[in-house]
Amino acid sequence: MSxxxxxxxxxxxxxxxxKTDIAGVLASLGNGLPGGVRDLDQxxxxxxxxxxxxxxxxxxxxxxxxxVSDFIxxxxxxxxxxxxxxxxxxxxxxxxxxLAVVDAIWSDGVAQASEVLKGMAAAAAAYGVPxxxxxxxxxxxxxxxxxxxxxxxxxxxxxFAARPGDRLLMAVDLRGAFVEPxxxxxxxxxxxxxxxxxxxxxxxxLATDGVCRAAKDISMAGTLGTALMLxxxxxxxxxxxxxxxxRPPGVALARWLTAFPSYGFLLAVREEDVAGVTxxxxxxxxxxxxxxxxxxxxxxxxxxxxxxxxxWDFTRDAFIVPAVGGAVRGTVTTET
Length: 336
Prior knowledge:
It is a single chain. With 336 residues, the protein is of the alpha+beta class. It folds into two domains: 195 residues, PurM-like C-terminal domain (Phosphoribosyl-aminoimidazole Synthetase, Chain A, domain 2), CATH 3.90.650.10; 96 residues, CATH 3.30.1330.10. It is built from ten helices and 15 strands. The strands form three sheets. A seven-stranded mixed sheet has the order 9-12-6-13-10-14-15, with helices on both faces. Strand 7 and strand 8 form a beta hairpin.
């Protein structure tokens, strides 16, 4: 597959589709009540992993994730586990620590919800984040799940803080396997709980030490879709080198680029901090490498094996941020 063909397949993927839908949702929010989505004076604009509300000497972090119904039907336990796991990852991607989660679950009977809830309980225990309440409806004809999380940060990492000249790093735990036949790279459910928590603690330590400008956890949009979200929020572009992306042995690049890893982050780091940041991850046996350079072009080009293609041009097309409706743009301290 050429780089151009790879780009076309990603642009047509389900993960990209879910993310590009966000622009329409945000446009509707921005045209709502006076003040729109800015009513609570968030520290970061919409488009980040969490909302961040200034509070005393830091920030309250809020996030929510919903699981697609076909995932719940096919793998109820892992869907429940993942709903907690991805929320925890969002909090750490902002440089914070999770405090508690709540859930809303719909099912056709209590028995149908049982495996989902067991998966949630397992993740809550593994990551040390209590489930403190929620909502249930066991008389629904369609299973659905949403989980929300509360966290706190002293210093924020933000999708809005990457700058031209920064290196784009990818940190990912390769000690796992695909949950076949799905795109979920599971490096969590068989790992020791203490290791999971310590690995995630790297993110707030980077924020506190001021050696990372921006971060975002790799989502269902995969590595390149997540990069687009970070770069668009920061108003920048990049040249990304596919050959430098860390990936497991024997896994095809096309599949890996659509993978949703249980531990995976993109970071914008100043050149002088790259060696130190990559060393921190590698000390914990987490793969970390520079995969590109951020520039001011507002275009994202990918290269590989002497070939290249334009992945996205933000001057022409929005990815997640609406082209109109300034209520959701603006100067920000960090992410939302």
